[in-house]
Amino acid sequence: MKKAIYIFVISILIISCSEKYNSPIQVDIASELEQELKDGRLLVIFSPDSTPEPRFGINDEVSSNQVFGMDFEGFEAGNPIILDPESFGYPIEQLKDFPKGEYYVQAFIQKYETFERADGHTVKLPMDQGEGRQWARAPKNIYSTPKKVLWDGENLSLTIDQEIPPVQEPEDTEYIKHIKIKSELLSKFWGRDMYLGAHVLIPKGFDQNPNQYYPLMVFHGHFPDDFGGFRTIPPDPELGEDDYSARFGIYGYAKLQQQEAYDFYQKWISPDFKRFIIIEIQHANPYYDDSYAVNSENLGPYGDAITYELIPFIEKQFRGIGEGWARFLYGGSTGGWEALAAQVFYPEEYNGCFAACPDPMDFRAYTTVNLYEDKNAYFLNGTFRKTPRVGKRNYLGHVSAMLKDMNHKELALGGDKSRSGDQFDIWQAVYSPVGNDGYPEPIWNKQTGEINPEVAAYWKENFDLRYIMERDWKKLGPKLEGKINIYCGDMDNYYLNNAVYLTEAFLEQTQDPYYAGEVAYGDRAEHCWNGDPSLPNYITRLRYNTMYLDKIEERLKSTAPSNFNQQNWTLTKN
Predict the structure, then answer these.
(1) Exposure pattern of 547-561 as b/e (b: 16+ CB <10 Å)?
(2) Are 394 and 526 in contact (CB under 8 A)?
(3) How high is the pLDDT of residue 16?
(4) pLDDT above 90 covers what percent of the chain?
(5) Which ranges of 124-247 would DSSP assign to H, the alpha helix?
(6) Are 556 and 569 in contact (CB under 8 A)?
């Protein structure tokens, strides 16, 4: 009875919300797209340009499109959705303050699914659909065809008539294989079947040498739709030098990327190249494009699932050696943090990590915030004024975004329950305890920036990697000796070098044992510098799979058993 009353009330709300909200924006749904729609988030996006589509133009920079967002529940077919005029917006927060003018407008709905988790909480979240939890590209999400309007602040009607199609899965090739397994650990936590996947690069001679077993390289990073940076044919001759990379400020970058991928293939099949397996993991989840590869109260036991379910499965199927001394970790940014975290939390399961430009590993430098001493994340507060805290810069130190703006973008896209699929929300989802409502407990008020010290204390004890190593060095030190390597540009765009400095200070004073690894910085290097001072970032970022091999070789010489073939990195089993 209560459920029926609830549905009735929601229906009345949707039907009559134009009177309740007195809103100028109404969104209709094409009848063929209504049937599977129940809960979700409505986004209304304004852009000064028609290309790219408005949904692809929301970012941290001053060039961002305008978006207003609103959650809804209990949608019933035949009813319009009316945007609440009090819905939070970014960059302009209130609809009443949005200037009149000519714009291209698009309505977008990110669908939520209901999860009845093993911890007793029921939550509504956007499920990954194979695209890597990218709301603007997620299959089953629906949107309107962009429409040019003269916005007068009074009346706007949009019709959602498009649906994003399913993702096409990549096919196996001679060297690249694709796997997906059901994780029993994650399925139990989420109350439904949950899967882990991986793209596997197998060595030359794999099929011809069935008694050879190989070391495993785990390349951590954001969601990969296929194995990247490996190409068996030369670069496309049609690619000209007029292709421009705005990120790196160079022409011909697409062709350069293809050339690097082809060069790697040629190395991979050469007779004197070491033989090993490389994997890129797919672990997208309802909060982000990957899980950060650790156990989390909100995401579930992804660390255990990857280490004890996925990796043993891969090693069994593709003849990995299957022991901790023969597994190595590397990656950049998110992947850099994951490489270090996996090494710290599973110290005997891996034999070394190479963490490039890692996400904050010391929360005294959580980008530009000290979570343990600062009261507010968005402002430096003085007696007579407050100054916005910076969030993003270039190698010259010129600031392009404030921390408040970056978080307000997420608040507009995903609301206050960590559902934006963006950076600060996933950190919060991974590191925070579960709140009373079943969603991540906020580290700070998303609108005002006021920090919650109790949540910060939880983060410290469970996910502050520098603190955990220092706290537990007596136990961890002997297991981590020689395994920790960290690289970061000293002008990282997101100030990630600050946490590296603090971590390095701890590592350099370690005793019994000394950590015996490496920390290095790139001079004036931005995100994501990964350890080679002789080449520019736009080259080295394409060489993760080869650039640490000399250091890995040294590690294997000192730790591998005598029957390991140091010439070609194989172990023969009868």
Answers:
(1) bbbebbeebbeeebe
(2) yes
(3) 41
(4) 89
(5) 184-190
(6) yes
How high is the pLDDT of residue 239? Answer: 83
Query: Bridge partners of 281?
Result: 198
73 is written with which tokens? 């529940």
- Residues 6 or more apart in contact with residue 377 via CB below 8 angstroms: 369, 389, 403, 407, 443, 444, 449, 450, 451
> Residues 57-85: pLDDT tens digits?
999 999 999 999 999 999 999 999 999 99
Q: In angstroms, rounded to a whole number, what is the distance separating the alpha carbons of residues 541 and 487?
A: 12
From 402, 409, 374, select the one nearest 388 (Cα to Cα): 402
Residue for token digits 């050339």?
259
How far apart are alpha carbons 204 and 175 in whole angstroms?
8
Overall residue count recorded for the chain in this entry: 574
Strand locations in 320-366 (E): 327-332, 353-356
Which burial class, exposed, middle or buried, applies to 248 when counting CB atoms under 10 A from its CB (0-12, 13-18, 19+)? middle
Could you tell me if 396 and 249 are in contact, meaning their C-beta atoms sit under 8 angstroms apart?
no
Neighbouring CB atoms inside 10 A of 89's CB total: 20
Q: Determine contact, residues 221/331, Cβ cutoff 8 Å.
A: yes
pTM of the model: 0.93
> Which pLDDT score is estimated for 58?
97
Q: Is residue 574 scored above 70 in pLDDT?
A: yes
Give the pLDDT of residue 248: 84
Residue 394 and residue 197: Cα distance in Å, rounded?
A: 35
The per-residue pLDDT for 156 is 94
Structure letter (DSSP) for residue 307: I
Interacting residues of 33 by C-beta distance below 8 A, sequence separation 6+:
142, 160, 161, 163
pLDDT at residue 52, as a whole number: 93
Pick from 443, 334, 449: nearest CA to 389: 449
Hey, what long-range contacts does 386-390 have (CB within 8 A, 24 or more apart)? 390/495
Query: 204-210 long-range CB contacts below 8 Å, 24 or more apart?
Result: 204/175, 204/268, 204/269, 204/273, 204/275, 205/275, 206/318, 206/319, 209/570, 210/319
The dihedral formed by the CA atoms of 189, 193, 198 and 204, expressed in degrees to the nearest 10: 120
For 120-141, give the DSSP string: S-EEEEPPP-SS-S-GGG-TT-
Q: Could you report the per-residue pLDDT of 349-393, keeping only the tens digit for each? A: 999 999 999 999 999 999 999 999 999 999 998 889 999 999 999
The crossing angle, in degrees rounded to 10, of helices 423-431 and 453-463 is 80
Cα 410 from chain centroid?
14
What is the third-level CATH fold of 176-232+275-363+466-562?
A: Rossmann fold (3.40.50)
What's the alpha-carbon Rg for the chain, to the nearest Å?
A: 25
**pLDDT tens per residue, range 388-425:** 999 999 999 999 999 999 999 999 999 999 999 999 99
**Can you give the residue ranges of every domain in the chain?**
2-163, 176-232+275-363+466-562, 364-462
Residue 15 has pLDDT above 90, yes or no: no
Q: In Å, how far from its chain's centre is CA 296?
A: 15
As a whole number, mean pLDDT of residues 541-560 equals 96
Burial class (CB in 10 A: 0-12, 13-18, 19+), 97: exposed
